[in-house]
Amino acid sequence: MKLPIESDRIEKHIELKAPLARVWRALTDHREFGKWFGVNLEGPFVPGQTNRGQITIPGYEHIKMEVIVQKMEPERLFSFTWHPYAIDPKKDYSREPSTLVEFRLEAKGASTLLTVTESGFAKLPAERRLEAFRMNDDGWSEQIKSIEEHVAEKS
Length: 155
Fold this sequence. Notes:
Blueprint: E1 9-16, H1 20-28, H2 30-37, E2 39-41, E3 50-55, E4 64-73, E5 77-82, E6 99-108, E7 111-119, H3 126-153
Antiparallel strand pairs: 1-7, 2-3, 3-4, 4-5, 5-6, 6-7
Helix pairs in contact: 1-2, 2-3
């Protein structure tokens, strides 16, 4: 089954009551990212490098996360590629295409507009495409709430 063209990407927006620098730190400091995202990452984010970690969200602790950092443009753009909804520890997802996750920041007075976009679902194997899209769409809805709570309590 093919995805309709508009379903190749997930896009979420949230206005965070925190300055750009605070939101940037929550996104790009691997320890802070891990707290709100629910992953224990092995080390810092570095463009061009792979970062791995163990998911800490209850019920998903068996999942390892692996991202390849694409861009880090301070207080503007942080992006990485990954294999979406790669939850079966017995399956090798490395031969599948990855999706691109982008976090874009824009100052809105004392607040920050955060746009999270994940694109590339149409390239995924047909048997995984719709479920990966559906699960990550729900996941990003939860994650933007999580970062909102995180930056509010750690300003």
